[in-house]
Each structure stands twice: as C-alpha cells, then as structure tokens.
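Section 3.1: Structural characterization of target chains.
Under the original work plan, the team committed to producing a structural model for every single-chain target entering the pipeline before any wet-lab resources were allocated. The record below documents one such target. The sequence was received from the expression subgroup and is listed exactly as submitted; it comprises 596 residues.
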Amino acid sequence: MTHAYSFGAVPLDSGVTRFRLWAPSAPAGLALEVEGHPPIPMRPGPDGYAQADVDCPPGARYRYRLDADTVVPDPASRLQDGDVHGDSIVVAPGAYQWRHPEWTGRPWEETVIYEVHAGLAGGYAGLAARLPALAAMGVTMLELMPIADFPGERNWGYDGVLPYAPDTAYGTPDELKQLIDQAHGLGMGVMLDVVYNHFGPDGNYLSAYAAPFFRTDIDTPWGAAIDFRQEAVSAFFKENALYWLTKYRFDGLRLDAVHAIAGHEWLHELARFVRDGVSAERHVHLVVENDDNRASLLRGDFEAQWNDDAHHVLHHLLTGESRGYYADYAEAPAQALARCLAEGWLYQGQPSTYRGGQLRGEPSADLPPTAFVLFLQNHDQTGNRARGERLTALVDHPDRLRAAVALQLLAPQIPLIFMGEERGSRTPFLYFTSHGDPALAQAVREGRQREFSAFPEFAGDTPAAQVPDPNAVETYRASDPWQADEADAQDWLRDYTALLQLRARLITPRLAGAVSLGAAAVGDRSAYARWELADGARLTVYTNLGPHPQAVAPALMPGPDVQSTLLFESLAGGRARLEQGELCPDCTVWLLEERA
C-alpha cells in the first residue's frame, strides 16, 4: 500500500525528484536550489503548493531561498545535512532491505511499554544492543521519545521542527530502521512519540512563507496554535503519521499533549486516515497524552491514553507530595486510587481545584482497562521536576515502592516502564537542550528557573536554589540511567522480570474483554480492586501504600467458598495476614480465582 505524499522531495519512478512545498504566503523570489542546478523559481498555485520536477538523484542537497538573505530547509525534509538550519537531502524511500518483512505487530493487550531516550541509550545502534535484555525481561513495545530533527545534539525531542527527518545525533536513518527491524525479530514492537501540537523555538521557518499554518486567534504555551482547519496543514501531519508507520515500520504512535490541539475532531480524522493507509493485517496502535481526559477519543479511534490521574495519586501515596497538581489527589487518595483502578480516571467531569474549578474529563467507566497506560514514572513526571529525582530517591521505604511496582505491572491497564526503573536507577532525569543561539539558551535557562521560583527551595540566588542549566552538557550526562550500576540493580531486574513473566503467562492472554468488578478504599492509604478476565477468571488486588497495617472489611475479603490462588505478594507473608483480615504495611497482594 503506497501513499502519494503531498510534501517534500520524492524520487519518482521516472528518475526525477519531485519537490513540493506549501507556501501560500511566500515572497515573490521563492526559489528551489538543488546542488548542481541553477536556482529554480517556484510559483505557488491557487492551492498554495509550489512544485518542481528536477533531474537529481537521492543524496542531492537542496534548500529553498526566500530572498537574498534567507534560505530555509524543506519543512518535510526526510534528512538534514547537519542541523535544522542546514540543507535538506533527497532520500531514496525503499533502499533499506527489511529482514523481518513478515512482522505484523502484536495485539494491544500484549503491550508492555519501555519508554527510552535514544541518545542516552547510545543512539540507535546502542539501543539496538540493549534489545535482547529488554525482550528477556518482558518488554513487548519500545517507545522512543521524539526523534524529529531538533537544534543541536541534545534534546528531549519536543523542540523538533522538521517532523519527517530523524535527528542524526542518534544515527543514520538506516540505523533507525535496523533498530526497528531487530526489535521485530525479537518479537518486540516499536512506538514513536510524535509532537503535533507545536514546533520548537529554533529552526521553524513556516511563518515566513506559510503564515496560514498558524492560527491568529488561539495561543498555546509554545506560541500560536497550529491551524488544523487548513487542508494542507491537516495533510502535513496526517501524512507524517503515515510516513513513520510505513516507511520506518513503527508499530504505533504516542501523540504528545493533544489537549493543545484546537479541536479534537482532527484527531479522529488522523486516526481514520492512518487506519485506512496501513495494511489491514498490521497491528498499529495509537495512544494519546491528553490532560482533558477525553474518553470519546478512546472509543474506537485510539487504543489508550497515558493515565496521569493514576500516576498522580500513586505519586502522592508514595511520596506524600501535595504541591502543584498533586493537590488534586491529596484528599481521599485511597478512594481516588480505587476509582482509577476501576474506571481509569479520577477526573471524569468534576471540577479541578488546581485548575481553579475548571471541569475536567469525561466518564470513562465503560472503557476497558487496556484503554489506560499505567506508569509510576515517565519522562514528564520525572524530568519536569526541577532536579529530576526518580522515585528511588523520593520514596523513603523501598518496600512501598516495590508494592507499587507490583500493583502497576500486574494490573489490567497497560504498563509503561521508564528507562532505568527496572534497575532501580537513582540517577536523575533532567531537562536538557543544546541550543546554539546564546540568547535562546539563556531564555530557556531563565525560564526554567522562573518556573520553579514559587517553591521556597528554588527562590533566591544561592547556589542551592539554582535549577540545573538545561543547555549544559553536564546536565545531559547526569541523566544517563546506565552510567552507574546500582548495588541492588539485579534485585530490581529480577523483580521486574518475574512480574512481567507472570503477567505474560496468566494475565495477558485473558485481557481482551476484561471488565472491572469494582474497587474500594480499604483505609486512607489502601485499596482493593477486582476484575473479571476474558475467560471468566477473577483477578483481585489488595494494596497498602502506607506504614501501618490496615484491617480489611469482611465484605472485601474472598468468601469461604471462593478458591483463589496467590498470584503474587510483594512481601512474604502478605497473603497469610490477609487471610487474618489484615493488609500488612507497604504490601501488595494479588489473587487469582480460576473459573470452575
């Protein structure tokens, strides 16, 4: 199934390369400059597209000239020669020979996600070398943080400005394809985090020749909103999604912060476009990050949403933190956790105190557990802390953290592991950039400090109050979770492996069609939840994330005629104490009742 792309430089079967640019507000001097050729004047038609067919091979460098002083890369560049301000390169679409072309992916219910920053993992080649160990642990889906070309060599990826061009700081396009190919050979899918809500602050020239790309009536935290009402703009991002899924054979996409996209109807259009453009036999998965908690997105078009609500209440229970958005989860946290386990989200239309009483969310109780991605940490929740501390540094009681891991990895929601968690990493994950513009680097540095200035520990000019400099190479290096081998790394790895193998053997095969049978608070820091799995088996969890034993009401205990087996206990003796009507501190107990 081949799609005719509307943007970029596309080699044709005739031997020429077609260059296509949407430039409805371009100056009269717009020209295409291809190495070895004189400048080619470009005249946008009534639809705003300018097009030229040029006799040039893959590998040719090119750029667009707007005037005597301004040249810009192709916004749909497939590869850059250098950085985001450099020339674009014509790429042959089918040069890589896939070793596992038969791979069609895995059903969503089998997904165990591992979120990773490709650069910190050693680039595409370095990450490929880690795949066998991840597969052995039980990971079934690698998720790459954004790789669209960004300024400099170091970035989280959310400052990308060329959505079709994989950043060469991590390796070549063929090395990226080799990474995906090798993952497929190990039975592992690969997802890509894509950013369709904004462009980064350095290297985005669209407003100079395609002003209608942006709205004038809506602003986002990153500037003017992208105008998805424009047919060309809509096509630019729809085709980008299809490009990654077909040309690189990614198995899914995670769409960043879609609440910043004006109009959710475009997201439905995107999902349908992708489904129509990918072979029907492939398992392709679409996931959103959405602060709005729009359950309507998850009823057919998208598989799942990152479950921030569940994370926030678990983080509060584990650390006691209640500042910022954690304030919304600090009142009755056990009830909040029970609702998240049973229904996905806490906020399903009620007002949020943190958001000044704004109503947030839609009812989600009818959605399957697999519509929610459950995590204890991720790049946002760790890296958006001023000092990037991981839970290993924030949770005072290791048994409590192990209890939370047991809850996360065996719950019917889809688990996500953030790189390093499986080793008990204590290295921080900090916010890092590598902006070459000194003024921009200083603005980011000051903005980061200002963001945390409301907290007393970051107020003032003392060295202790300073937030790590995002642009310093030391900040990047300090974020490497593999730089030091923790003393208990093998213990953590053993636990993660055991839990994921248990999940794969006894839970995953029964997840399609699983439904919640309800949940309840069992005290101020404890909860109970139960699900019926696809084959009629019943899965029950009791979790206590507090320092004191908790009595369990008889109504929440297995009845005398129920034959349940111990699936897992995070502390030895947890099941025995539960049978006495008490849930021990810092402990999670999972029970499985097989169908008679």
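The chain has a mean pLDDT of 95.
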